[in-house]
Amino acid sequence: MVTPEDIKGWIETGLPGTEVAITGDGAHFEALIIHPDFAGKSLIQRHQMVYRALGDRMKAEIHALSMKTLTPEEHQGQPN
Fold first, then answer.
1. Is there a contact between 70 and 33 (Cβ–Cβ < 8 Å)?
2. Average pLDDT estimate for 48-76
3. pLDDT per residue over 20-59, tens digit each?
4. What is the predicted pLDDT for the residue at 25?
5. 20-49 burial code (b ≥16 CB/10 A, e <16)
6. For residue 18, what is the DSSP state?
7. DSSP secondary-structure letter at 37?
8. Are 35 and 18 in contact (CB under 8 A)?
9. Which residues does 3 contact at the CB level (< 8 Å), separation at least 6?
10. Residues 6+ apart with CB under 8 A from 5
11. Any idea what DSSP says for residue 39?
């Protein structure tokens, strides 16, 4: 079974310099992904970057992943 730690590691490996927080129950996961290269990218482009980092795992191992993708500056502006 895939764990949040697995997904976190895969994203961090595929997108070096990323800050990742994952929660989930083994089938459905939620991710907060912070990366400077998201700057100037659309939401779709940001998600595509994450999907590339995860590769075929999105098809086979991860059933559902909800993502919030932010730049470090956007994250700083988020309410706590």
1. yes
2. 92
3. 999 998 778 999 999 999 999 999 999 999 999 999 888 8
4. 85
5. bebebeeeebebebbbeebeeeeeeebbeb
6. -
7. G
8. yes
9. 26
10. 22
11. T
